[in-house]
């Protein structure tokens, strides 16, 4: 719009003010102008920030972290996330792999595609052993991620559901990742993998697989292990060494059950039965007579997992049959880290009684030596991989700050 400016002498200002007073007109209030100008500046800043948070990957990762962090800490989805996040739908499908079916739970935003195509992205979650599909904290995490605009896929297999871990499930993980990338709207977008506990080796194996290793945006490994051999040794000693000091460490029953299932596959049926009964929850120790019925290899497995011969760990490890030792090597993420190209985010609780924190510290040390891009954070608020109840404010603030930073960096890697 064009307008004509009327010239006015510099000495007319007092006369105009006098006329305003004489006619009862309100004088011009300069502080009001300043406030209006300040408001325009604030609104402009907020507008620019909203654009940045939508357009730039770092902005999207920050916003997502702000919404997801309270959901993780509280193990529930806050009202702000539900009211401001996207509406989502949950579907279940089954796909095939070399070792059998793969069960997938998909949590997907139902809104239109965002203007910025890369704002979507996907996450494959491998939650570990057992059937975790109805675990409240897993559902909470999956829904929270999906409400921020990500397509989330949880996977499990019959092997995992039977409290076992097999290198053969690598193909199942690869097929799940490829299925995630093939979903409508995912073309050209980035996807990462998040794993918990016994799911960690599978995401590592898949991230090193030539079929997808160039497509994986990141790998997040929470509460896992690095070397199955040193893991078994720790179970046998019932102690860990932290910063040069030994301290007692007593595993809970579930990881003992998993390691039993892993190590006894090639023993005779009678030996498997005896070992399962002797290593079961609250089981009485095997008698001398029962132990005599076992081969030297089966006896070594029993003592290592029972932890009743902490001073004989080295000799018991040597007594393990060659096929068991080979299996332990195959199940170690250690063997594939040189082939992983994606950045790796390591997380572990300092007092984890399922898998020792020393395993992830060794993982961190190996990645540091390789100069592989990674981060490592230790926490004190988790019971293995689930948030503990009854935490005080100091604990939540301290660990919450570290968790926010890791979330931000992880989500940025997937943007």
Topology:
Layout: H1 13-23, H2 30-55, H3 57-74, H4 79-84, E1 88-97, E2 100-109, E3 122-126, H5 136-147, E4 151-156, H6 158-161, H7 170-182, E5 191-196, H8 200-207, E6 216-222, H9 228-237, E7 239-242, E8 245-248, H10 253-263, H11 269-279, H12 288-292, H13 296-306, H14 313-319, H15 322-330, E9 344-349, H16 357-370, E10 374-379, E11 382-383, E12 386-387, H17 393-413
Helix pairs in contact: 2-3, 3-5, 3-17, 7-8, 9-13, 11-13, 13-14
Task: Give the key terms.
415 residues; alpha/beta; two-stranded antiparallel ribbon; 17 helices; disordered N terminus
Question: What would you say this structure looks like, in words?
Answer:
It is a single chain. This protein has 415 residues and is of the alpha/beta class. It has 17 helices and 12 strands. It has helices spanning 13-23, 30-55, 57-74, 79-84, 136-147, 158-161, 170-182, 200-207, 228-237, 253-263, 269-279, 288-292, 296-306, 313-319, 322-330, 357-370, 393-413; strands at 88-97, 100-109, 122-126, 151-156, 191-196, 216-222, 239-242, 245-248, 344-349, 374-379, 382-383, 386-387. An 8-stranded mixed sheet has the order 1-2-4-3-5-6-9-10, with helices on both faces. Strands 7-8 form a two-stranded antiparallel ribbon. Strands 11-12 form a two-stranded antiparallel sheet. Strand 5 (191-196), helix 8 and strand 6 (216-222) form a beta-alpha-beta unit. The radius of gyration is 29 Å and the shape is globular.
């Amino acid at each position: 719009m064009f307008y004509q400016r009327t010239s006015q002498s510099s000495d007319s200002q007092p006369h105009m003010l006098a006329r305003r007073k004489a006619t009862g007109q309100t004088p011009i209030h300069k502080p009001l102008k300043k406030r209006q100008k300040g408001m325009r500046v604030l609104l402009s800043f907020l507008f620019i920030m909203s654009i940045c948070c939508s357009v730039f990957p770092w902005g999207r990762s920050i916003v997502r972290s702000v919404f997801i962090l309270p959901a993780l800490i509280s193990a529930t989805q806050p009202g702000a996330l539900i009211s401001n996040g996207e509406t989502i739908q949950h579907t279940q499908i089954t796909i095939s792999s070399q070792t059998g079916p793969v069960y997938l739970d998909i949590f997907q935003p139902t809104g239109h595609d965002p203007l910025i195509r890369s704002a979507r992205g996907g996450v494959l979650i491998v939650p570990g052993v057992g059937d975790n599909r109805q675990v409240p904290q897993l559902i909470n995490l999956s829904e929270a991620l999906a409400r921020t605009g990500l397509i989330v896929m949880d996977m499990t297999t019959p092997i995992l559901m039977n409290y076992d871990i097999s290198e053969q499930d690598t193909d199942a993980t690869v097929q799940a990742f490829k299925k995630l990338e093939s979903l409508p709207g995912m073309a050209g977008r980035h996807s990462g993998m998040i794993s918990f506990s016994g799911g960690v080796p599978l995401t590592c194996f898949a991230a090193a697989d030539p079929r997808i290793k160039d497509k994986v945006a990141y790998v997040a490994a929470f509460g896992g292990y690095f070397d199955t051999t040193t893991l078994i040794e720790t179970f046998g000693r019932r102690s860990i060494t932290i910063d040069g000091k030994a301290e007692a460490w007593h595993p809970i029953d579930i990881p003992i059950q998993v390691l039993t299932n892993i190590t006894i596959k090639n023993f005779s049926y009678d030996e498997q039965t005896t070992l399962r009964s002797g290593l079961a929850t609250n089981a009485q120790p095997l008698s001398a007579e029962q132990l005599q019925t076992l081969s030297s290899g089966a006896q070594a497995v029993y003592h290592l997992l029972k932890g009743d011969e902490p001073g004989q760990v080295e000799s018991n490890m040597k007594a393990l049959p060659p096929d068991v030792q080979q299996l332990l090597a195959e199940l170690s993420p250690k063997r594939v880290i040189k082939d992983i190209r994606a950045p790796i985010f390591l997380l572990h609780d300092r007092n984890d009684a399922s898998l020792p924190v020393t395993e992830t510290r060794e993982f961190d040390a190996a990645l540091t030596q390789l100069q592989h891009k990674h981060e490592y954070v230790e926490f004190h608020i988790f019971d293995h991989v689930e948030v503990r109840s009854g935490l005080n404010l100091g604990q939540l603030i301290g660990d919450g700050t570290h968790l926010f930073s890791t979330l931000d960096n992880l989500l940025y890697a997937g943007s």
